[in-house]
Write a structure and sequence with these properties.
Layout: H1 19-30, H2 40-51, H3 57-65, H4 73-83, H5 93-108, H6 112-121, H7 126-142, H8 150-154
Helix pairs in contact: 1-3, 1-5, 2-3, 2-4
Length: about 170
């Protein structure tokens, strides 16, 4: 229902049931350290300063917490501009999945060790990359973390096709 349809029992308003969750994810991606995350008043001021658009701190809080969903297209545009995502991120599940996968990658690459590991893996053969993924998946299993690659494939991206790279 990402086409603006209403859920059964709603009064014809666009279905923005995940708006709060999506905004929360964007804030967390931009400010992963909760201790350093700006409050809604500061975020509101930052949005105004960077985009020229105005969204009050209270209204921003209401959107993030799901208390309000009656956001205008103009307000969505301001939020999209501030967070650097396409406007469709807020209303199209496929775009949301794609952007979320990109945000997860960007967040992971903030860690210097993850970046170093990824850079060191560049140029390895498909067989070596498969072996490394097996090792990482096993380490993630031992630490009770999601399997690497599962979220990427769920996010609508195609899995690597190693057989296409072989001579």
């Amino acid at each position: 229902m990402d086409s603006g349809e209403s859920a059964p029992g709603e009064t014809g308003r666009p279905l923005l049931h995940d708006l709060g969750h999506r905004l929360g994810e964007l804030i967390a991606a931009l400010y992963p350290d909760e201790q350093k995350r700006p409050g809604y008043a500061r975020l509101s001021r930052m949005i105004r300063e960077s985009t020229g658009g105005t969204i009050s701190a209270t209204y921003l809080w209401e959107l993030v917490t799901g208390r309000k969903r009656n956001v205008t297209l103009e307000q969505l545009g301001v939020l999209a501009e501030f967070f650097g995502v396409p406007l469709e991120y807020f209303v199209n599940d496929e775009v949301t999945r794609r952007v979320t996968a990109q945000l997860a990658l960007a967040t992971a690459l903030r860690d210097a060790k993850v970046r170093h590991l990824a850079l060191r893996a560049e140029g390895l053969s498909p067989a070596s990359l498969d072996a490394l993924l097996t090792i990482v998946n096993e380490a993630r299993r031992v630490e009770n973390l999601d399997r690497v690659g599962k979220k990427v494939h769920d996010a609508g991206e195609q899995p690597d096709r190693h057989e296409d790279h072989r001579p």
